[in-house]
Design a protein that fits this description.
With 294 residues, this protein is of the alpha/beta class. 41% of the residues lie in helices and 14% in strands. It starts with a strand and ends in a 6-residue tail after the last helix.
Length: 294
């Protein structure tokens, strides 16, 4: 099984952060070729960090977000032997810290399918989440897939991006008879995005190897809490990479000790709810109990 990957990069300061380098080196364990695509022009002293890790670098200013970078890497690979040389194609982005656990044992949990991802999202419509998305040859060589990739363009609304591309790709493929699977199997049926609402349980109980950066940066303050987050990170992962990145990217300083145990409990409870009651409770916390949020 030979795999190629397109790695989508974005950094507000146009740098290649150390946590990204660590992630890329780990991906080399399962991907034979990696194309690094940034949606910004990055300086040569940052590109040098990638030498010997990735096989090709594309830096091109565009406003098509991760899928625009996936598109550019995909067509580069098509022109350079993708269909002849590889059995699987991965789309991966830099929105996660990790891997917190080795990747090989985790991806071996994937069953017989045509495309797969690290996690499944039930928040809006069942789909594979696009931060780690892998397609087998019967998918990435199909006309359906190629037409989809060609259709990717600049979108002004974030929901349009999610609906057309992340949700849309899973729906398009399943509507055309392709089967999917996902690596992190949950024994309970959650009705939400488990990478946000159930991230602690995902890591501790199900060995989820990736942690969304947005959680620790303080973006999801009314959906979850990051209190005591260090205790969730396995000791094998160099946690200093996260500290260093947060110094530059965190949204705000957070008092992690205030109501720590109760905050963890209440947000874990919220994550078990279905979408409508969960939003009601989240809004109640936001407007009536804001002291419980990060």
């Amino acid at each position: 099984m030979k795999r190629a990957a397109v790695f989508a990069h974005y950094d507000k300061d146009n740098i290649v952060d150390d946590y990204v380098i660590y992630y890329l080196k780990s991906l080399k364990e399962i991907f034979d070729k990696i194309v690094f695509v940034s949606c910004r022009e990055i300086p040569n002293n940052e590109k040098i960090k990638l030498y010997g890790i990735v096989d090709f670098i594309i830096c091109e200013n565009h406003n098509e977000y991760d899928f625009g970078s996936y598109k550019r890497g995909y067509f580069y690979l098509l022109e350079n032997g993708l269909e002849q040389d590889f059995d699987e194609l991965g789309f991966i982005n830099d929105s996660c810290y990790g891997p917190l656990y080795p990747l090989k044992p985790i991806i071996n949990q994937v069953g017989d399918c045509d495309f797969w991802g690290m996690t499944k999202n039930l928040e809006w419509q069942e789909h594979i989440q696009s931060f780690f998305f892998v397609f087998k040859k019967q998918v990435f060589t199909s006309k359906i897939f190629k037409n989809f990739m060609e259709s990717i363009k600049d979108e002004t609304d974030k929901f349009d991006i999610i609906n057309k591309y992340e949700i849309g790709l899973s729906k398009l493929l399943t509507d055309n008879g392709f089967k999917f699977d996902y690596a992190i199997k949950y024994k309970r049926k959650y009705h939400s995005n488990i990478t946000i609402f159930k991230w602690r349980e995902a890591i501790l109980k199900y060995k989820m190897p990736l942690l969304k950066c947005s959680i620790l940066r303080g973006v999801n303050t009314f959906h979850t809490t990051i209190a005591d987050w260090e205790s969730v990170i396995p000791k094998d992962y160099p946690i200093e990479l996260i500290y260093k990145n947060l110094e530059r990217t965190k949204v705000k300083d957070i008092d992690l000790k205030r109501f720590k145990i109760f905050r963890i409990w209440i947000f874990d409870f919220v994550g078990n709810l279905r979408k409508t009651p969960r939003r009601i409770v989240s809004n109640f916390i936001k407007y009536c109990l804001p002291f419980l949020s990060d």
